[in-house]
Design brief:
Structural class: alpha+beta
CATH architecture of one domain: 2-Layer Sandwich
CATH class of one domain: Alpha Beta
Order of helices and strands: HEHEHEEEHEEHH
CATH topology of one domain: Beta Polymerase, domain 2
Radius of gyration: 17 Å
Largest sheet: 5 strands, mixed
């Protein structure tokens, strides 16, 4: 990401925060976590998985439609740049468990990278393959905790 632009200054993140969804009832999925970790400099949209109050609020903001997988419903906002969904690969993850296992970055909830890696491997699209490589490079670059050696007298 451009070092001059913080995560919260990104136009899509700003648009999401303007929705004022309850932060405990959604998680940013799709490629959003790659943006948050600095793995990608840009994303064209945000996938926001919601439950309960966040989903109820989202449904008041635009027309409801069916997402392209597993009977998930969605509301497209900001000309489709924000896709608010009521599930994320439900045959793999329960929506509550998915949201509860979020990673918080800059006070925003994101799906963990291991989950991003799992669904991108499942989808296997060309853009997913590039993201898989980038995630794996990022994870292998991450510093390991220091090794603790027992003290010897």
């Amino acid at each position: 990401m451009n070092t001059q632009l913080t995560l919260r200054q990104h136009p899509l993140i700003r648009a999401l925060t303007e929705l004022d969804l309850p932060v405990t009832d959604y998680v940013i999925a799709g490629s959003g976590p790659l943006l948050a970790h600095g793995i990608r400099d840009e994303v064209s949209d945000l996938d926001i998985v919601t439950r309960g109050p966040a989903w109820e609020l989202a449904q008041t903001m635009g027309p409801l439609s069916t997402a392209p997988w597993e009977d998930v419903q969605r509301v497209l906002l900001r000309r489709g740049h924000l896709e608010v969904l009521n599930g994320w690969f439900p045959s793999t993850w329960d929506v509550d468990e998915f949201i509860d296992n979020r990673v918080v970055i800059d006070d925003l909830p994101f799906a963990p990278l291991d989950r991003v890696l799992q669904w991108k491997r499942t989808l296997g699209r060309a853009k997913d393959l590039d993201d898989i490589d980038a995630i794996l490079r990022y994870l292998t670059r991450s510093p390991l905790p220091p090794t603790v050696h027992p003290s010897h007298p």
